[in-house]
Structure prediction request, 432 residues.
Amino acid sequence: MKKRILALLLSAMMVFSATACNGDTTSSIVSSDDSSVVSQIENSSDEKEEQSNTESSEAETSAPETTTTKEPETSAHETTTTKEPETSAPETTTTKEPETSAPETTTTKEPETSAPETTTTVKPEEDEPVQATGGFKVLGDKLYDANGNEFVMRGVNHAHTWFRQHLDTALEAIAKTGSNTVRIVLSDGDQWNRIPVDEVKEIIEKCKAYKMIAVVEVHDGTGKDEVSYLNNAVDYWIEVKDALIGNEAYVILNIANEWYGSWDNLDKWAEGYKQAIPKLRAAGIKNTIMVDCAGWGQLSNSFIKHGKEVFEADEQANTMFSIHMYGTAGKNKSTISRAINGAILLDLCLVVGEFGYNHSDGDVDEATILEMSVEKNKGYLGWSWKGNGGGVEYLDIAKDWEGTTLSSDWGEVLINGKNGIKETSKVCSVFE
Prediction:
């Protein structure tokens, strides 16, 4: 009898062992640490080989001539101006290279969409709303508003720095699209006129009046590698912090637009933000922080390789990431999926902070960006309401500041399309 029991126990152990060895992919991902998840995401594409084969040709085509305010790189869209003296194009010295995170394969299995469980991440249960904390809060790969409700951004960018006279008209028109968020271009004086604190306050109050969350960003360091541009943006936010403090439920702080244009040496990108974020927190700024990817905003490896350490530099654990999807980061389904699903796997909060339907570095798969953002409950903000120039006027969402007519190839798709703003946007609950 004892022998029989022993045999049964041995058999059960063998079955358990076989099951453990042959478990499904999701189980192995969930039980793995962050480094193995990163490895899996990196191995999901032959991006390094693609970079080697295409970098010289894309570098030449990604920088159009411009006489406008927006940097002429793959994620930058020029805006003409008739008012500000600094509106001529900034000098660009960075050569655009193809994104190292963009796979060109249809055979590679995409990352699992479930977020890995780690001992350091605390995520709310689906049926337990987060308690209000006075402002937005990042928990895992999701963003929650001050009432504890999940918030998904749907909106557009507005180039305020170069079109300050159109603020009222633009905000009213953008609100009519159903946008729940508007990303506002500001400047700290490095390249364009410094926007004073009273004007920042005015912008925020007007966004609140139209029931739109304001994402404010400094644009002067676009595509720059020098840490001085990032530091100057941080100093600017500290100088105008009176506009931010008390508005944590209505304002998200996007530190610097597309700072760090290079596609390599991502340690420098990470170190820059690991120093910037604590400085903002030490100044008493408690708003949710948004960090743009390197590579002119298009390099998903920024957060895939270094997102965790940048996030952990925030003592309030309230930092999210933004990727800008143009002809490199948004060129096809596998590339888009790698970024969005990669963030989910790593339990990082991600938004598509800018995208268009076409750009100087190639065609954009805007339909997939919209569809996947809706499917995965991720935010998106289209570039830009109006004012693009220097050959990329096609990025104008509206043909007039009042929004009377939308551009057929871009504005109509973004605003009125199946997965567009009007169909999928929900006003933030702090306004209800």
